[in-house]
Hints:
Strand content: 15-25%
Subunit structure: Part of the multisubunit transport protein particle (TRAPP) complex.
Largest sheet: 5 strands, antiparallel
CATH class: Alpha Beta
Mean pLDDT: 87
Strand order of the largest sheet: 2-1-5-4-3
Organism: Actinidia chinensis var. chinensis (Chinese soft-hair kiwi)
Number of domains: 1
Protein name: Trafficking protein particle complex subunit
CATH topology: Beta-Lactamase
GO cellular component, one term: endoplasmic reticulum
Order of helices and strands: EEHEEEHH
Subcellular location: Endoplasmic reticulum; Golgi apparatus, cis-Golgi network; Golgi apparatus
Amino acid sequence: MAAIYSLYIINKSGGLIFYKDYGSAGRMDTNDSLRLASLWHSMHAISQQLSPISGCSGIELLEADTFDLHCFQSLTGTKFFAVSEPGTQHMDNLLKHIYELYTDYVLKNPFYEMEMPIRCELFEINLSQAVQKDRVALLGR
């Protein structure tokens, strides 16, 4: 079973710019993934405003019975969130590594237009390797 079910990257406007499904059960269609990304962007923004703690950066972890949703927001407002198995540890490190891959292979790509869907083969190859490496590390623990 996969530790990570799916990965989403949302631009600062709330648009889904990347989606990758790693789980076989419960695969979502394109419209559902767009709705989920939009909903998460809105919930994240509302949580920043409603937080009793000043300087709150929004929801970082949402735990449910059947999944965990981990979120990392970059300084530019781009959000990286992953749906994973309940209780999956160290997802914050994986999301930060995915952000590094994003900056190295997407943002430095001269053909990529900001805020547009990501279509970069090198990013997807390195992303698959990072997720696979994380799965192997989880199995070894």
